[in-house]
Amino acid sequence: MRKPRIVVxxxxxxxxxxxxxxxxxxxxxxxxxxxxxxxxxxxxxxWLHEASAGxxxxxxxxxxxxxxxxxxxxNFLQATVEDxxxxxxxxxxxxxxxxxxxxxxxxxxxxETFGIxxxxxxxxxxxxxxxxxQIREHIEYQFATYKTEDEKNDERLTIIVGGAGFTGxxxxxxxxxxxxxxxxxxxxxxxxxxxxxxxxxxxILPGFDPELVKYARAKLEKxxxxxxxxxxxxxxxxxxxxxxxxxxxVEEIKAGTVVWAAGVRGNPLIEKAGIENMRARVKINxxxxxxxxxxxxxxxxCSLMINEEINRxxxxxxxxxxxxGEVCARNIASLVKGSEHLEEFTPDIKGxxxxxxxxxxIGVVYGKKLTGTKASFMKKVIDNRALYMVGGPSLVFxxxxxxxx
Amino acid sequence: MRKPRIVVxxxxxxxxxxxxxxxxxxxxxxxxxxxxxxxxxxxxxxWLHEASAGxxxxxxxxxxxxxxxxxxxxNFLQATVEDxxxxxxxxxxxxxxxxxxxxxxxxxxxxETFGIxxxxxxxxxxxxxxxxxQIREHIEYQFATYKTEDEKNDERLTIIVGGAGFTGxxxxxxxxxxxxxxxxxxxxxxxxxxxxxxxxxxxILPGFDPELVKYARAKLEKxxxxxxxxxxxxxxxxxxxxxxxxxxxVEEIKAGTVVWAAGVRGNPLIEKAGIENMRARVKINxxxxxxxxxxxxxxxxCSLMINEEINRxxxxxxxxxxxxGEVCARNIASLVKGSEHLEEFTPDIKGxxxxxxxxxxIGVVYGKKLTGTKASFMKKVIDNRALYMVGGPSLVFxxxxxxxx
Lengths: 405, 405
Hints:
2 copies of one chain form a homodimer.
Chain A: E1 5-9, H1 13-25, E2 32-37, E3 41-43, H2 48-53, E4 62-64, E5 74-78, E6 81-85, E7 90-93, E8 96-99, E9 102-105, E10 110-111, H3 119-122, E11 124-125, H4 129-146, E12 158-162, H5 166-185, E13 194-199, H6 210-222, E14 225-229, E15 233-236, E16 240-245, E17 249-254, E18 257-260, E19 264-265, H7 268-273, E20 282-283, E21 296-298, E22 303-304, E23 306-307, E24 312-313, H8 318-337, E25 351-355, E26 361-365, E27 368-371, H9 372-399
């Protein structure tokens, strides 16, 4: 009898958690497990703002997939997924086709540009290790070039961050710490540097506690960040952004660097595969399966779940992705065993901490509001916990965040 | 009675040596000494190829001028020289005018582009700390960007070095060592990277011992450097160079980075000042004065001296500049004392070592040919000696090059 084949697409938080739990739950004979991922490494999406600002080296935000999978139980295929053929039960990759009995789609998110002109061409997105590294290098190159100019173009030193949500704010926090270092490295007068956050919504960090938001804004402003709130970004050009002020007025801000951090959508492969979706995210059943597809699980940023308490979708977070991965692994194990009784997933939100750079943060943890070093400490605990969940103490030791006083 | 005022323009090898020797030779009452320099630091021009490749941090190639001058005897003015009014005995700077009784012009060299189209716009020059830092960052940005491209543009990873003279070869040696590091840092396949040296002359390192040249070429080729010799660079474009092959044929080489390292000329201020010159270099008298100007000394790369043994100019080297600085200081001291008997300068070429990257070099020292680690060691001795001459043992300790086995 042929063993059922489980194919997991993506080695992000959700996919990697699924695989590491499957390899614990299932015997070698029970099923064949194949993990497909574009890179041979996993990266911490929630740390990318640090690599982008240059406050943490990109090698610190990634680790080798082979270090955390049990290769006697899991086959890892480094490949780029090109299509998912639902009816034919197979996945097309740049390394060939792959049939599956059970499929886990955990392909993560992409930046959502909402059709704003010029963003794709001229703005950077904090999407992965490659793009984070490019942002870091782009900013450094702007500083280096500034010093070689006979006619100084001060606007080269302006950085626009589009979006005052979680990623935008965390990135601003890192930038605030990084700019003084950059000024020293490149002999640039700090007064010449501008950091401007442009946000369409009338507030920063929507959904966060107002008192904490106030703290965050004050701290970032103290680091030199200017906020332009309630002013939608209309267009990005090669060296500027146009933002709407009021009804008809448009203001141009010249800038050497534009980073777009204002929202994500699911993976376009979801749309291509013909699975019902909203912005490439699948509104999944409580057992994490795609409606109408008993053998297909969708987790992480490709999935959409409604928080019925507030009738809004849960945000795409690492925390939820990892919890989904655990339930997904147990549900697949049940199916393989022939049981039709699947577990229902309920997010268990332990807390949310938004970093404002090294040593500072805001957050709510187990219902308690935190700011400053306490919140920053909790952020590191959360980051280290994600490592622990996937790779145990040895991974925490290798890649964890510690501060020695 | 007013003290005579000595103004020294430039804190490169020649200018700084003049000032440090003047401050030893002369009492506080004998003369007023003013050193004018654009930056508040001196940089080691002969180490810039390392900072450009990224094998040595740019802070390692510079030191503060205030660390080596005796501020009770020398006034340092951080200013950019804009004009020299010979007849009026004054210097115009962006910080105001400065009268002088004795002037030392030690303003160094600029890159010579020989009118080749596009070089000024599109090629980088290894000229100073700012430009070296920009080259380093430009190359890193090309590597980072390559990894973010959907359609990989391999030519982005091609680096063209124009010129197979001293600077070109030393830069190629550093690049050969740097590329493997860059490939690791940016996850780039080393096979995708090309380094091409384009030289108009029919040989590399003209004037060097042929046996040593052969060694250098073989070593650089082993590091992946391709040589295109006897092929003048005709034009640089935004992303390529055009080189002449034979009579009528022109070959285009696409490249993400073009560095022009094929020769220098003196400072344009020499031409502006109306002093007789050849490519902005003054053919000086044996006492280092400009012909017809008894109170103006020209030393370093702005000066031109003929080596009568071979009837060719001496090359613009740090070694000669520093030796000139010593004689210049003694001659000025004589003039201030009222003596008209000035010393004649004769270069004392102790040796020439051309680095091929960390741990490898070729050279002739006291008439003996050296290669490999021995030559490399001598190169470090020479580099440290330059520091010692200006700033004594403490400067060698701070900025010197040592290798601990």
